[in-house]
Specification:
By secondary structure, this protein is an alpha/beta fold. It contains seven helices and 18 strands.
């Protein structure tokens, strides 16, 4: 007599609420739905994808593993599922206990309620506000942009140009560690992803616009993934990319040449130098999304010394956190953690005997 085949678990009334529709939340939702779990995904904004959805492909002569294409694919995938997606929606309240939470949602001023077995916080991050670095002139010097501004320009307009006059730049400076590892900004941590992110963007620019020369101003270069060392070596071999180990102190308009004058310390010469550039690109760091603090407090989650949510710190069972809200991560690491979190949520839901 053969053994009866194991029956799949009864997943009725085992819904999961995911708070945050960035790449981590979308990935966790897709993973759980693929395992037969009913998912409601809520996002404060009007569209899914979060910050990563504004990124452009950074392929040069080869794929540079920026994972922007993966973000686009995941958003297409989730829009073709039966996952309940609520945009312009925030978590407003929670009652009950493990496996039987009743959550209140604010859906653009309309109150909704859901009964869920578990919640996943994927609240994401905000870029550091570059306006706070007044010495770099962001917001009033038109040709000073953040790396995200440049991403949007490339993704939506398909070209690089100076906002002041629409002219293609010939000389660009990238500044690293804007708002990270910065005592004056109150952020002593490294955002970890900025070096690789900026260099992929630079490599793509050099491939598409070979006449543009670039200065990469940095404090030190953080490793990012198993392939990064080879990629960094290729960037260093490109003589049109100058690596300058010095964080600039000041940017101002040079009217005589209609350019930006950048002041920095030349470590080799031991003196302050000024150099002119057509554009300056600021690689801003990560900070926890503002509304994430309310959500974390509501769910009894703690924060680390850098202000990010401590994964596993919740006082309630069935509450999980994933993505960059738990600490700075690039897209690749956010995808990996979201998949792992989804597996943990699934095991919790099917193993807790909920009815």
């Amino acid at each position: 007599m053969t053994k009866e085949a194991a029956k799949p678990p009864d997943l009725a009334n085992r819904d999961v609420l995911i708070v945050g529709g960035g790449i981590s939340g979308v990935t966790a939702a897709l993973e759980l739905a693929g395992l037969g779990i009913s998912v409601t995904l809520v996002e404060k904004g009007e569209t899914l994808g979060g910050l990563a959805a504004s990124f452009c492909c950074k392929a040069s002569e080869v794929c540079n593993k920026c994972f922007a294409c993966v973000v686009d694919k995941r958003i297409r995938d989730i829009n073709n599922t039966d996952i309940s997606i609520l945009t312009r929606t925030e978590l407003a309240g929670i009652e009950g206990g493990s496996g039987a939470y009743r959550v209140t949602l604010d859906n653009a001023g309309r109150t909704l309620e859901r009964e869920v077995a578990a919640l996943v916080v994927a609240a994401g991050i905000d870029p550091y506000d570059a306006h706070l670095k007044g010495e770099y002139g962001y917001g009033y010097l038109k040709n000073v942009l953040t790396a995200r501004d440049l991403e949007v320009m490339l993704r939506e307009r398909g070209a690089i140009f100076r906002p002041s006059d629409g002219v293609s730049p010939q000389k660009i400076a990238f500044f690293q560690c804007v708002g990270s590892r910065d005592q004056a900004a109150g952020n002593l941590y490294c955002s970890q992803v900025c070096c690789a992110y900026a260099l992929r963007l630079i490599k793509m620019i050099r491939h598409t616009y070979p006449d543009i020369t670039i200065a990469f101003h940095y404090m030190d270069i953080q490793p990012a993934g198993v392939h990064f060392a080879d990629f960094l070596s290729k960037c260093r071999d490109d003589k049109s990319i100058r690596f300058i180990r010095s964080i600039p102190s000041k940017v101002y308009h040079a009217p005589a040449t209609d350019s930006l004058s950048v002041k920095f310390v030349d470590a080799d010469q031991g003196e302050v130098r000024e150099e002119h550039f057509d554009m300056v690109i600021l690689s801003v760091g990560m900070t926890l999304k503002k509304e994430a603090k309310f959500t974390a407090d509501l769910l009894g989650m703690a924060f680390d010394d850098d202000g990010f949510i401590i994964e596993g710190s919740q006082t309630k069972e069935g509450i999980f956190a994933t993505g960059a809200c738990t600490g700075p991560k690039d897209i690749e690491r956010s995808l990996t953690q979201a998949k792992s979190t989804a597996a943990n949520v699934y095991q919790y839901v099917i193993g807790s005997g909920f009815r």
